[in-house]
Design a protein that fits this description.
heterodimer; A: about 15% strand; globular; B: alpha+beta; 6-stranded antiparallel beta sheet; 5-stranded antiparallel beta sheet
């Protein structure tokens, strides 16, 4: 597995983002974490448009998606990804504060790959993030389309 | 032939003459000597006794005596021997042929010249005929004496009683003394003088003596100068006749028409009521037959009708009768077959049911209309039907109904199916007033107005020409009032001929106006209810919308809470952790404790938020009711707590638990809270004892309890147990949010049950709740839940 595979973190809260990134740092996750602050940025990144227009043509190994975000929320991002023939193969894990049945149901209906309620206690939160990235990035075999292309990796 | 010789010539001549007399006599003349030997025997004796002279001369006479009278001869001979005469002895002798002959015998002594008795001369006369005459007389005389009927004879002049037979003597003691002072003889002399003046011999009369009645035949016997009165007791006959006359009178005058009919259908008897009903005289009726007056029973059907009657013995039938004037009317007839002295008759009671039929028709019509009213048939249609119904009851009548508009003071068209439309249009909207035709005036006066003749009535002065144009001659109008007494409208009957109402018309008006009032009241009440309902529905819809909005707000509020309240907490905890790591070894002990406190406060707040969200969810979440096997559910809850309370000693007592009807997830939360509390509040006990059981099962409900031996609570605060954020223990003693039991109560309430708590300080607590048992499930289906 290439160490250069990216994780896209869509999180509007700078604190949550910082705490998440702290965890990645602590556990020495090798992947590049791209942080976007709302759904619109996430879609721009995925579609390589706007400020991401010139980036390399590859798909992230995992999308960590918050649900409640300004402009375009997590559900819209999920809906668009799972409705897009190219993007639908990318694993999406929703990480949110809400454990409401309503949100769970809608996410699974849209085809989410996992749904995690962010634990309040930091230790548990850190453990959850660690296990998620370990599983989805290291253990899980992605769709062939998600594999990094030779020559472009690490560029 | 023999002769008595005297020995002298003159005597000879006398003797010859005497002999001739003797020979020619019809009497038996014979003589005997004193020994009774026959010496002479004339032709009369020969005829009387059958013996010839030759047979008798020289033989004893004794053989002519019947055996029982043999001593008579000795007595006669003894008397004669003494020179005495035996005169007119009536006795009996025996003829030669053995038959008896009644004779009257005279015997005289025969003396010789010296005067010595030498024989007896006897003359016997046949008295058979005289005797039978006498017997007849005696027999006749016994009639008045032996008859049980009183016979009295009185002097025609003095009235003195001359004869009273034994029957009269017995029945009327003192009759002779009272004479015509006795009721039996009252007025007898007047009666006789009347008889005399009429040259009549006999008269009959009836007299009363006390309680009894006598029929008398008064016979005048002019030769006797007497009046004979034969009486016979006719009391019984008179009583019987009296009764008969009374029944006759009763039948004749009975209020119910009756008649007696013979087998051929002829009317034998009728009464006055029958005559009245049919318009025939009694004479006419009694010469008619039933088929003459019963058009549904023609003569050729009579025989079959009679047979049916005979078979059934009697019956009640409804048919028609025809009056003399040809009018036909409905009758109900009760007929009985009766047999009298070997003949069959039928006896009929007839009831004229014209009136009943009319009332039936009226009430049926009213009922039909009221049924339509009750079924919500439109008012205009109901009124129209009512008018048509009224018109059917009275030929030539045209009905109309007008509504009253109180604000405008006018009448408006409601229903007038048979009046010309043009006329109805003219009437529509007329103002009421003191002389505004029949309806306008009736509405104005609030009382019925009867106009018999529109052409001359001043009330119609302004409308006369219009009425004439449409050929309306009479109009009676009646105001119709609602149950609150307000005027609803007017009901009018129009006629094309001048006329006034009779009793039937008034009855019809009464029925129509009452029914119309009910119909209008009902329709208005219905309209009011519809209006109220519509406004109620609007209000309900409005409230529902408000509630939905409030619910939605609450939901989005809860959603926000779950998201937005938890995030800052997570951040506090996260950064506290980061800070601890960053400042490791640089923090004072005090500062480190502050950090801990910040962390645990934030954690507690997080628990509060979680419980509050759960509590709120329990109120809103949709319930999925299923049969829930509590044994399994409780077991799984306990397993969780056993993991969490490793190191503690807990004795579980779990009784058999029923299968209940409810939402499994919610019930799990109930047990999680109750068992969690029991575990928590027994933490100070060396051995905790927690019991879960079912105490009571009735009316389809089970009462489940969770009991512990923990610290318990003071019953005076029991009412606070189930309130949100209500706690009976300090946080440092037992941690908690104060929401668990509120959630339990909410869930149990949503299952239609109640929850209660019992306890004492340091002596444990018992929480009980009632819940519906699962409805019995067929054997095959039970496995699915286990």
């Amino acid at each position: 597995m290439s160490a250069a595979r990216r994780i896209l973190l869509a999180e509007d809260s700078p604190q949550d983002a910082e705490l998440t990134l702290e965890v990645f740092k602590e556990y020495h996750v090798m992947n590049v974490v791209v942080h976007v602050r709302d759904g619109a940025e996430a879609l721009d990144y995925l579609h390589r448009r706007g400020e991401f227009a010139g980036r390399a043509d590859d798909l992230p190994a995992l999308v960590l998606l918050d649900l409640k975000m300004p402009k375009v929320d997590g559900l819209d991002v999920l809906r668009e990804m799972k409705g897009d023939p190219r993007l639908k193969v990318v694993p999406v894990v929703v990480m949110t504060s809400s454990g409401e049945d309503r949100d769970l149901r809608r996410c699974y209906e849209l085809g989410v790959n996992a749904y995690v309620v962010k634990p309040v206690k930091f230790a548990e939160f850190a453990e959850a993030v660690k296990q998620l990235s370990t599983f989805w990035v290291l253990l899980n075999e992605p769709d062939p389309a998600c594999r990094p292309r030779n020559g472009q990796a690490g560029s | 032939m023999s002769a008595i010789c005297k020995g002298a010539d003159v005597a000879v001549a006398d003797a010859a003459r005497l002999a001739a007399i003797v020979e020619s006599s019809d009497d038996a003349i014979f003589s005997k000597d004193l020994d009774g030997v026959v010496m002479s025997w004339n032709a009369g004796a020969e005829r009387m006794f059958g013996y010839s002279e030759a047979e008798m001369i020289g033989t004893p006479f004794l053989r002519l005596f019947p055996e029982d009278r043999v001593q008579e001869e000795a007595e006669i001979l003894a008397k004669i021997a003494r020179g005495e005469r035996v005169g007119h002895l009536d006795t009996v002798r025996v003829r030669k042929d053995g038959t008896l002959v009644h004779v009257s015998v005279t015997a005289s002594p025969i003396r010789d010249a010296s005067g010595r008795v030498i024989g007896v001369s006897k003359v016997a006369r046949d008295i058979t005929e005289r005797r039978s005459m006498e017997q007849r007389m005696a027999w006749l005389a016994s009639f008045p004496e032996q008859t049980p009927n009183p016979i009295v004879e009185v002097d025609e002049v003095s009235g003195e009683v001359q004869y009273v037979n034994p029957a009269a003597e017995g029945a009327f003691p003192g009759l002779a003394e009272l004479r015509d002072g006795h009721p039996l003889l009252a007025g007898i002399r007047e009666l006789v003088s009347d008889l005399l003046s009429r040259r009549a011999d006999v008269v009959r009369r009836e007299v009363a003596v006390g309680e009894r009645w006598f029929m008398q035949t008064v016979l005048h016997l002019p030769e006797e100068g007497r009046v004979r009165i034969y009486s016979s007791d006719v009391t019984l006959r008179r009583e019987a006749e009296g009764r008969l006359r009374l029944s006759e009178f009763a039948v004749e005058n009975a209020a119910i028409p009756l008649y007696l009919v013979a087998k051929d259908g002829s009317i034998l008897r009728a009464n006055l009521a029958t005559c009245d009903m049919l318009g025939y005289t009694m004479e006419e009726l009694c010469s008619m037959t039933v088929p003459d007056v019963a058009p549904e029973l023609p003569s050729d059907a009579w025989a079959a009708h009679w047979e049916e009657l005979r078979e059934r013995g009697g019956m009640r039938l409804e048919t028609l009768n025809r009056r003399k004037d040809g009018g036909v009317f409905p009758v109900e007839v009760d007929v009985n077959m009766i047999e009298f002295e070997g003949r069959e008759y039928n006896f009929a009671c007839v009831h004229d049911i014209t009136e009943r039929r009319r009332m039936d028709a009226l009430l049926m019509g009213q009922r039909d209309i009221l049924r339509k009213v009750a079924n919500g048939y439109p008012l205009s249609g109901t009124l129209e039907e009512m008018m048509l119904f009224a018109e059917r009851q009275q030929a030539g009548m045209l009905c109309s109904f007008l509504f009253f508009d109180e604000k405008k003071g006018t009448l408006s068209h409601a229903a007038a199916p048979s009046l010309p439309d043009a006329y109805s249009r003219i009437v529509d909207g007329i103002s009421i007033g003191p002389a505004a035709g029949s309806c306008g005036t009736a509405a104005f006066r609030r009382e019925p107005v009867t106009v018999r003749e529109i052409a001359t009535d001043p009330l119609w002065a302004n409308y006369r020409e219009i009425a004439a144009q449409f050929g309306l001659a009479a109009c009676w109008s009646t105001p119709v009032f609602g149950k609150d007494g307000d005027l609803l409208g007017t009901f009018a009957m129009y006629f094309r001929e001048p006329r006034g109402p009779d009793a039937d018309d008034r009855e019809l008006i009464e029925i129509i106006t009452q029914t119309a009032a009910v119909a209008i009241d009902h329709a208005r009440a219905g309209e009011k209810i519809r209006r109220l309902n519509a406004s109620l529905e609007r209000r309900v819809a409005h409230r529902t919308r408000e509630l939905e909005e409030a619910n939605q707000e609450l939901e989005s509020f809860s959603y926000s809470v779950s998201h937005d309240l938890r995030a800052p907490l997570r951040h506090v905890l996260g950064y506290v952790d980061l800070l601890k790591r960053a400042a490791e070894g640089q923090l004072s002990e005090k500062a480190a404790r502050y950090m801990e406190t910040i962390g645990s406060a934030a954690e507690h707040m997080s628990e509060l938020i979680d419980d509050l969200l759960s509590f709120s969810r329990m109120g809103r979440a949709e319930m999925r009711t299923d049969a829930v096997v509590l044994d399994d559910l409780v077991q799984r809850v306990i397993e969780v707590f056993e993991l969490e309370s490793v190191g503690r000693k807990i004795e579980w007592k779990i009784g058999p638990l029923p299968e209940v009807s409810g939402d499994a997830a919610m019930l799990r939360l109930v047990f999680t809270n109750l068992i969690g509390n029991a575990v928590k509040y027994t933490s100070t006990r060396e051995v905790a004892c927690i019991e879960i059981g079912c105490t009571e099962k009735k009316d389809g409900q089970a009462v489940i309890h969770v009991r512990d031996n923990g610290v318990g609570f003071d019953m005076q605060y029991a009412h606070k147990l189930f309130g949100v954020f209500q706690r009976l223990h300090r946080q440092e003693d037992f941690q908690g949010t104060g929401i668990g039991l509120a959630t339990v109560r909410r869930i149990v309430a949503r299952h239609g049950g109640t929850v209660s708590a019992e306890g004492a300080v340091e002596r444990g607590a018992t929480f009980s709740f009632a819940i519906s048992l699962a409805s019995p499930i067929p054997e095959g289906g039970k496995g699915m839940n286990s």
